[in-house]
Amino acid sequence: MDRQTDRYIDRQSDRQTVFHIQANLEDELVQEALKTGVDLRQYSKQVEAELQRIEQASIKDYIKESQNIASLHNQITACDSILERMEEMLSGFQSDLSSISSEIQTLQQQSVSMNIRLKNRQAVRSQLSQLVDELVVPSTMISPVTEQEFLEQLHELNNKINFAKELSFRETLACSDIQDIVDRLKIKAVSKIREFILQKIYSFRKPMTNYQIPQNTLLKYRFFYQFLLANERTVAKEIRDEYVDTMSKIYFSYFKSYSSRLLKVQVRNVLGIIYLPISEYIMTTLISCVCVCVQFPYETLFRSQHYALLDNGCREFLFLSDFFMVAGNSALDLFNSVMGKTLSMFLKNMSAYVSDCYDSIAVFLCIHIILRFKAITAKRNIPALDKYWEAVLEMLWPRFELILEMNIQSIRNTDPQKLGVLDTRPHYITRRYAEFSSAIVSINQTFPNERTNALLGQLQIEVENFVLKMAAEFPSRKDQLIFLINNYDMMLGVLMERAADDSKEVEGFQQLLLARTQVNRTQEFWEINHNRMITFVKESEALMEKGQLDKLKNGEVRITQLVRGFSSSWKQSVEALSQDVMRSFTNFKNGTSIIQGALTQLIQYYHGFHKILSQPTFRSLAVRSELINLHHLMVEVKKHKPNF
Fold first, then answer.
1. What is its main location (predicted)?
2. For residue 240, which of 291, 289, 198 has the smallest C-alpha distance?
C-alpha cells in the first residue's frame, strides 16, 4: 500500500516537473536562449548570480534609508493615534445624532397632532360662529319701513327665520333660545309690511290729473310680498285681493272715462250711401260716409283705445308675474281678475258698434289693428290678451263678410235704367268700387286673408257685369266702347295707386282695358274710311290667296272712288278723330294710344291697298297715279300725332 502511494506521488511529481519544464520552455527568454544555442545550466548560474547581486544592492539601499524609514514609521504610528481619537469623536457624534433624530421625530409627531387639533378647532369655530351669527338677533333689527335699512334687515330676518326652521328640524337646543324673539320680530315685520303696502295700494285710488303707472312704486318692494308669502300667506292673500280689487276698479274707471272722451271726438256720420231700396235711386254698392264735421273716424279711436289697452295690459301682466311671483295659468287668472271688467266693457261696446255698422273699411281696419297688436303681444311673449283678441276678431270678421256680401248682392240687383242720365265718363259707382277695392287690397297685403280675396273676387265680377249692363244702355257701339274704356281705365288707375301691380284685381282690369282699347282702335279707323277701303283690301287679299284677283278687274269705278275719296278726306277724318278722342276719353293717355293705333292701322291698310293696285290686274288703271305716296302719308300722319 505504501509503495503504491510512493509510486503515485512520484508520478505526480514527475508530471509537475514536466509541466514546469513545459511552462519554462514557453518563456520568451528560454526560447531565445534555445534558439541561440546557449547552455541552460550555464545560463541558470548567471541568473542566480545576478539575483544575489541585486539582493545585496537592495540591502545596502535599505540600510542607507533606515533612518527615513524609522521616521516614517513614527509618523504612521502618530497618525494611527490621531485617527483613533477621531474615530472615538465621530462615534460620539454618531451617538448624539441618533439621539437628535429621535427627538426630531418626536417633535414632528407632536406637530402633526397639534395641526389636526387646530384644524378641528377652526372647523368647529367656523360652524359655531355661523350658528351664533344666525342666532343672534340685534336689538335694532326692525326699523321704520320707509328707511332703506328696513329692506336689508328684512332680508336678514328672513334668513334667521329660515335658519331657525332648519335648526328646529335638527332638534338643535340653541334654537329654542331665539325662537320666541324671531317669532315676535316676524309678527312685527308682517304688521309693518301689511300696513305699508295697503297704504300704497289705497293711494292708487286718488284722482290723478295725468295717468301714471302706480305699479312702479310697488315693484321695488317686491321682497315685501315675497316675505309675506313665505311667512304669512293669509296677509299675502289679503294684499293680493286688495290690489286686484283696487286695480280692477281703476282700470275700469280709466278706460270707461277714456272711451267716453274718445266718443266726443268721434265723427258723427251721416250715411251718404245707406242700404235702401233701389226704387229710391240711392245706390248701395258701398257703404261710405259723408262727414258733417272734421273729427276722427271710428277706426282711429279704436286704435287709440286698443293701443292703450295693449300698453297697460302688457305692463300689468309683467308686473303681476314679477311682483306676485306667478306664471302660466296662475298669471293669466290673476290678470283676468284685474282686467276682466275692462275687457268685458270693451267687448260690450264693440258689440254695440258692430251690430249697427255698415262701414266695411272701418271694420276691416279694426281687424288689421287687432292682428297687428296680436303680433306685438306674441313678439313680447305676453299671452294675457290672446283670448280678448280672438273674441274681437270673432265679432268683426262675420260683420265684415256680411257687409261685403250685402254690397255684392246690391250690385247684382242694380237696374241701370234707374240710375239717371247716361254718360260715357266713369260712373260714380265704379269709382267708389275702385277706391273701396284698392283700400281693402292694400290693407289685406299685410295679413292676407283668402276669404277676403274670394269676396273681393265676387265683388269684382259683379262690378264688371254692372259695367257691361250700363254700356249696353248706350245705343251706339262707339259710345259703349268709350264707356267701357273710361271705366276700366279709371278703376285700373285707382287700383294701381295702392294695390300691387301683380294683384288679381289689377291684372284683371288691365286685360279688360287692353281688349276694349284694341277693339276701339279698329272702330275709330273704320269711321275714318267709312269701311269701304278696308272691305276692298280684305276682299282683294282673300282673292289673291286663291289666285282669283281677276274677278275684280271690272271694278275700276269702285277703285277710282276709293283712291280719290281717301285722298280728299283722310286729313279731315284724322283731325276729326283727334277732336273726338279728346272729348270722349277722360284719360288722355288712353286717347293717345287709341289715335296712334288707328293711324297705324290706317297706314297698314293703305299699304295693303298700294300692294293690291300694283298687281298685274290693276297696273293699267290710270287712277294709280293719284295714289298718295306711302312715305309722304307717314310724314303727314306724324304731324297729326297728338301730344297730351
1. Golgi
2. 198
Per residue in 153-198, pLDDT (tens digit) is 787 778 777 766 766 655 555 556 667 777 788 888 888 889 988 9
In DSSP terms, 445 is beta-bridged to: none
- Residue 580, CA distances (Å) to 555, 602, 616 in order: 34, 17, 40
Per-residue pLDDT reduced to its tens digit, 358-374: 888 999 999 999 999 99
> Measured in Å, how far apart are the chain's first and last C-alpha atoms?
170
Cβ–Cβ < 8 Å for 186, 157: yes
Which of 425 and 500 is assigned the larger pLDDT?
A: 425
Q: What is the 3-state secondary structure (H, E, C) of 585-635?
A: CCCHHHHHHHHHHHHHHHHHHHHHHHHHHCCHHHCCCHHHHHCCCHHHHHH
pLDDT tens digit sequence for 466-508: 878 887 887 877 777 777 878 877 777 777 776 555 566 556 5
Q: How far apart are CA 488 and CA 481, in angstroms?
A: 10
At 241, the amino acid letter reads: D
d(CA 290, CA 271): 6
| Strand bridging mode 269-270 / 290-291 | antiparallel
Handedness of CA 118, 124, 128, 131 (dihedral sign): positive
What is the DSSP secondary structure assignment for residue 552, as one 8-state letter? G
Amino acid at 182: V
Q: Are 532 and 518 in contact (CB under 8 A)?
A: no
The DSSP 8-state label assigned to residue 549 in this structure reads G
Residues 406 and 453 sit within 8 Å (Cβ to Cβ)? no
Which residues have C-beta within 8 Å of that of residue 618, sequence separation ≥ 6?
A: 552, 553, 559, 612, 624
Residue 563 parent element (H or E): helix 556-584
Residue 581, number of CB atoms within 10 A of its CB: 22
Q: Are 320 and 382 in contact (CB under 8 A)?
A: no
Q: How far is CA 141 from CA 90, 179, 184, 226, in A?
A: 75, 15, 11, 19
Q: Using CA atoms, how far apart are residues 486 and 9, in angstroms rounded to an integer? A: 163
| Radius of gyration, CA atoms only, the chain | 63
DSSP 243-301: HHHHHHHHHHHHHHHHHHHHHHTB--EE-SS-S--GGGT---SS---EESSS-B-HHHH
Q: Round to whole Å and give the CA distance between 320 and 268.
A: 39
CA angle 637, 640, 644 (to 5 degrees): 135
Full DSSP string of 50-68: HHHHHHHHHHHHHHHTHHH
Query: Contact at 8 Å (CB) between 438 and 498?
Result: yes
CB 505 within 8 A of CB 515: no
> How far is CA 218 from each of CA 58, 193, 226, 236, 249, rounded to the nearest angstrom?
125, 12, 12, 14, 18
Cβ within 8 Å of residue 195, ≥6 positions away: 145
Three cell numbers, residue 90: 465621530
Find cell 275687457 and name the residue. Answer: 343
| Section 521-530 average pLDDT | 46
* Backbone torsion region of residue 547, taken as left when φ is above 0, otherwise alpha when ψ lies between -120 and 50, otherwise beta: left
Q: Could you tell me how many residues make up the chain?
A: 644
How far is residue 516's CA from residue 507's CA, in Å, rounded to a whole number? 14
**What residues contact 156, with CB distance under 8 A and at least 6 apart?**
141
